[in-house]
Design a protein that fits this description.
By secondary structure, this protein is an alpha+beta fold. 18% of the residues lie in helices and 34% in strands.
Length: 295
C-alpha cells in the first residue's frame, strides 16, 4: 500500500458511533464506525451531507450517536436515536442519517458520489476482481483516541466479487475481501485502488495512472469453528498436560471480511423520504437566492 498522499484526507471522513452521548464523551470501548458522504447540488454548489454506517450498528445495537473531530482539537457529539436512521427493509446492512456540519468547525472530508463511489459500470470498465488491492479505515477500539477520533487502516485484497450471504439477518450481496477486522470496524468505508504496475492488463490495455474508489461498507466477517485438541502427546508439547478436550470448539474470525457494495449505499440514499427532504432543502435555497437577487 503506497502512502495515501492526496487521498490522505479520506481519513477525515471517519466518525465513531456510540450508544449514548456520555459514552461518546468518555470514549468508552463500545460502538462502531461511520463515514461522511455527500450529494452535490451542482447549480447551488452545496452538499447534502449524510453519515453512513451499518444498520446493525446504528439501529440493532443502538449506537446512533456520532462523534466527529473538530478543527480546533477535540470533538463534537451529535445525539441521535436509532429510530432517526434510514434503511431499507428488506435490504442491505446499511443505514444513513442527514447531518449538518460546519466547514469552519469540523474536520470532515465528504466522500462525494461522483468522485469516489464505485459503480457496477466501473466494475466492468476497470475489470475489478479477485486480487485487486483494498483498504479500510475505521475504529480500532483498543487504540481509537480519547481527545480525538484516531482511525486505523487495514489492508487486503478482493477475494470474491459477488457473494450471496446474510448480512446480520438482512438481505444483500457482498464483496468478500481477504482483510482482517474486529469489533469496532463495522461501518468502515472500504476502498479499492490501483497504482501503476500493480495489476495485470489485458493484451490491448496499457496500465497507466492510478485509481481509488469507495468499494463499499464493511459489515462483518465470516466466522469459523476451530477444534480444540488435546496436544499433551504432541512432540511440540514440552511441559504439563493440555486442559482442553477433543471434540470441543471455539468460534473465531476467518480473516475474510464482507463488504456491502457502494451501490447499496446509493439505494438507501434514494429512499423516497430522503429524496423529499433534499427537494425541500433545494427549493428553500433557491427561494432565498431569488429573494436576494430581487432586492
Amino acid at each position: 500500500m503506497p502512502y495515501l498522499r492526496k487521498h490522505a484526507n479520506l481519513l477525515n471522513s471517519i466518525v465513531f458511533l456510540y450508544p449514548t452521548k456520555e459514552s461518546a464523551v468518555l470514549g468508552q470501548n463500545f460502538g462502531g464506525t461511520g463515514f461522511i458522504v455527500g450529494k452535490l447540488i451542482v447549480d447551488l454548489n452545496v452538499m447534502h451531507v449524510y453519515c453512513v454506517t451499518n444498520w446493525h450498528v446504528a439501529c440493532k445495537t443502538g449506537c446512533a450517536n456520532i462523534r466527529i473531530n473538530r478543527k480546533d482539537g477535540g470533538f463534537d457529539v451529535f445525539e441521535h436515536d436509532p429510530s432517526e436512521w434510514y434503511f431499507l427493509s428488506p435490504g442491505p446492512d446499511v443505514a444513513v442519517i442527514p447531518i449538518r456540519l460546519s466547514h469552519d468547525e469540523h474536520e470532515a472530508t465528504i466522500v462525494g458520489f461522483e468522485e469516489t463511489f464505485f459503480t457496477e459500470a466501473l466494475s466492468h470498465q476497470l475489470d475489478i476482481g479477485p486480487g485487486d488491492d483494498v483498504f479500510m479505515a475505521g475504529r480500532f477500539i483498543d487504540y481509537d483516541g480519547i481527545e480525538v477520533n484516531k482511525p486505523a487502516l487495514r489492508f487486503g485484497n478482493i477475494s470474491i466479487t459477488d457473494a450471496e450471504v446474510r448480512q446480520d439477518g438482512r438481505d444483500g450481496r457482498s464483496f468478500v475481501v481477504d482483510m482482517h477486522s474486529r469489533t469496532g470496524f463495522s461501518g468502515s468505508p472500504v476502498f479499492v485502488y490501483r497504482t501503476p504496475g500493480s495489476w495485470f492488463p489485458k493484451q490491448d490495455q496499457i496500465p497507466l495512472g492510478s485509481m481509488l474508489h469507495l468499494l463499499g461498507i464493511h459489515w462483518g466477517q465470516f466466522q469459523e469453528s476451530w477444534q480444540i485438541k488435546d496436544v499433551s502427546q504432541s512432540r511440540a508439547t514440552t511441559v504439563g498436560v493440555s486442559l482442553v478436550y477433543n471434540g470441543a470448539y471455539v468460534e473465531g474470525l476467518s480473516g475474510m471480511t464482507c463488504v456491502c457494495p457502494a451501490w447499496d449505499i446509493r439505494k438507501v440514499l434514494e429512499i423516497p423520504r430522503l429524496v423529499e427532504l433534499r427537494a425541500e432543502a433545494e427549493n428553500y435555497l433557491r427561494r432565498e437566492i431569488d429573494r436576494g437577487s430581487s432586492r
